[in-house]
């Protein structure tokens, strides 16, 4: 049997999500963790190694990122799994909230040749942190640990891409009320001020100065609350801001009018393997509703060649949603929205997102 992928899939995925655990040390009100019905658990180290082996043998991914749900630093064999990925020459990205960073953890992570580290910082000040993250951890200590990791990684001869992610709440009015989320980042001026403050914190921690402070301020002034912003504040160090979403109607109360048409980048540029071994269409499927098969009993290539996946992908090509979960994910509460949202998915994902991938090549 040929080891090539079928024609309805890309030759190589931009990223594959490998969820080491769906347990988390935070209980953020904006995360669907509380809506998740699948059991909590850890990926068996053997399964993680097998998944990485198959990805390496098929040369499937530009990067494997250890995240869907949960906090990967909770996995007791994380370092060993990272080492196995390195032994197979699999580029790895680590997504963490950063709260479990300790001096020994920081030291060990800095020794690993990670491709990228994403800090899901989300709430950039003490008030929003304490109001939304479900923890009473000391905010200043939390910030310092993140900066310590940044400093340790930056000292490497070839440091990883380091990205601090901040969430905005501009378009989440109804969701804010429903979930009790404070409107902590709701206008562009506040966002720009926050990015500048964090830029200065990074420079101070690294003992650097901006090569052109006026140019940096000019770029920060261009940041807008209404979209996705990525700004390089130092070589290989970025601040990313993005809009709070509802995880495919995870928080919807009442009936959803399912979409019949639309487009998704699931299995187009990425897919996910949950800690259980289930292979799902995309990283938004936090509850495993689109499972195509399980790596415990079926090789990954066989799952990717399944008739069901072929039908789903051919549907995306025609702008048609074949999977029930996809229909709900792109569904809305209103008849008008049921037409607008699918059209927007085709415009935004099929036409515009490839442009942004080319513009921001490192942010897959």
How is the main sheet built? 10 strands, mixed
H/I helix tally: 12
Shape: globular
Terminal CA distance reads 31 Å
Unreliable segments of 5+ consecutive residues? 355-363
How confident is the prediction overall: mean pLDDT? 88
Biggest sheet strand order reads 6-7-5-4-3-2-1-8-9-10
Structural class: alpha/beta
Tell me what you see in this structure.
- With 364 residues, the protein is α/β, with parallel strands linked by helices.
- Helix content is 38%, strand content 13%.
- Strands 6-7-5-4-3-2-1-8-9-10 form a ten-stranded mixed β-sheet, covered by helices on one side.
- The longest helix is centred in the last third of the chain and has 25 residues, at 335-359.
- It is globular and about 55 Å long.
- Residues 355-363 have low confidence and may be disordered.
Topology of helices and strands:
Elements: E1 15-18, H1 45-58, E2 64-66, H2 78-87, E3 92-96, H3 103-111, E4 116-122, H4 126-132, H5 139-154, E5 161-168, H6 173-179, H7 188-206, H8 213-221, E6 229-234, E7 237-243, E8 270-273, E9 278-280, E10 293-294, H9 300-304, H10 307-317, H11 324-329, H12 335-359
Parallel strand pairs: 1-2, 1-8, 2-3, 3-4, 4-5, 5-7
Antiparallel strand pairs: 6-7, 8-9, 9-10
